[in-house]
C-alpha cells in the first residue's frame, strides 16, 4: 500500500515572529487546500521565551530577565504555558481536522500526532511512553495548573522517559485545521528558565525549581550518548514517518510564500498589542 505523502519543511533557526507566522501561514494554506499536511522542524534565533495564547504577561513573566538575557519574546497562537526555546528541536504539524486518521477530540488527536515524537525517542534509544494522569490530584492539576512553566505540569498523553516529561506540546484548531507544535529538549538551562517567571517569593521559586527536576528532563541528561541537533532531526523525521505511517517530502518555500510569512510576522507577531495583550 502506498503511503500518504506529507510535506516536510526544515526552516532552520528563525526569529520568534517568523516562526509563529510560518506556522500560521501553513495553517492558512492547508485550510485553503494549497498544500498537503505538513511537518516542520525549526529553531530560534535568538533563544526565545514563548507564552501561551491565554497567559497574562504582566502577572506571570519577568520581562526584565527576558531583556537582560537578550532573549526573544513572542505569544503563541496556541494555549499552554511559558516555554524557553533554546537548546531544542521545535516541531509543528499541520493537518486537517477531517483527515481520516485524525480523531475528533483534541486529546485523542494529540495522541495520534505525538506517536511520531514517541517513535523519534525510540529511534534515539530512549524508552519514552505516554503518561496518562491517574490520580484525581493529577487530573485536577491539569485543569488548574499552578505554574506558568510549561514543562512543570502533566498533561494527557504527555511524553515521558523514566517518569519525567521530555517534550511539551500545544494545539489549536482554526479554519478546520489542527496546528500542533512543541519542544523536544536536547539540553536545558534550568536557572535561566526559572529566572524568567514571577513568583510570590524567592522561597516559592526555589521550591518549584527543586520540584521541577523530578518532573522534566532534557534528552542529553538521560541519553547514553550525546545527541546533537542533526541526530535529533534524523530520528524525529523517521519517527514521524513511522508513527503516522507517511512519507515526508522536503519542500522549500517560494519567494511569494516567504513574503506572505514576513507580512504576518510584522503585522501580528512583532506587535506589542499581540504579544502583551492580556
Automatic annotation (TrEMBL):
It is an enzyme of class 2 (transferase). The keyword Magnesium does not apply. One of its GO terms (molecular function) is lipoyl(octanoyl) transferase activity. Gene3D superfamilies: Bira Bifunctional Protein, Domain 2 (3.30.930.10). Pathway: Protein modification; protein lipoylation via endogenous pathway; protein N(6)-(lipoyl)lysine from octanoyl-[acyl-carrier-protein]. Residues 33-248 form the BPL/LPL catalytic domain. The active site is at 150 (acyl-thioester intermediate). Its EC number is 2.3.1.181. The record marks 165 as: Lowers pKa of active site Cys. It comes from the Bacteria. It catalyses: octanoyl-[ACP] + L-lysyl-[protein] = N(6)-octanoyl-L-lysyl-[protein] + holo-[ACP] + H(+). Keywords: Acyltransferase, Ligase, Transferase. It holds the Pfam family LplA-B_cat. GO terms for biological process: lipoate biosynthetic process; protein lipoylation. Belongs to the octanoyltransferase LipM family. Monomer. Catalyzes the transfer of endogenously produced octanoic acid from octanoyl-acyl-carrier-protein onto the lipoyl domain of GcvH, an intermediate carrier during protein lipoylation. In the reaction, the free carboxyl group of octanoic acid is attached via an amide linkage to the epsilon-amino group of a specific lysine residue of lipoyl domains of lipoate-dependent enzymes. The reaction proceeds via an octanoyl-thioester enzyme intermediate. HAMAP family: LipM. This is Octanoyltransferase LipM. The lineage of its organism: Bacteria, Bacillati, Bacillota, Bacilli, Bacillales.
